[in-house]
Structure prediction request, 199 residues.
Amino acid sequence: MSAVRLVLASGNRGKLREIQALLSPHGVRVLPQTAFAVAEAKETAPTFVENALIKARNAARYTGLPALADDSGLEVAALAGAPGVHSARYAGPDADDRLNNAKLLEALAEFQGEERRARFRCVLVLVRHPFDPSPLIAEGTWEGRIAEAPRGEGGFGYDPLFWLPDRGCTAAELPPEEKNRLSHRGQALRQLLARWPAL
Prediction:
């Protein structure tokens, strides 16, 4: 099997690490768009799929390579699906994971137990070139709850708050390979691989 070079339309190291781990066994070499100095695309759409398409087409246009974009986020039932597509910028345009997590805990301070239901959602889009008329699109979701305080050192984003009742731990406490098997991103990548003609 000849290696496939693919640009990931993100500079997020956590996403890059997870996607590389899942795709490298299939002969896919994943390169971050930062390696090509690709300008970040403006995520102006109201849905994950539209934002993923914007990012994938942008990365393919600048690099000349097939591009994979991941748009994902956390949807909390008690917050009417927020932070949703704004997950990375929930506490403001320059917010980091710590600030986003703190804002989420504050928003859920009055909620308990099942009221703290949440899901991670991931939409992946693969375009072969910037004008690909038939992009491959895959989606995965991961159900859980929001913990009352962060736990664990692994993962990134909201992982320290994403409580898995059936595992008795947060996503940040899972070993990386277990997280990749269970997660919204892992599910979406397996769907994508099943439909990817080159593989």
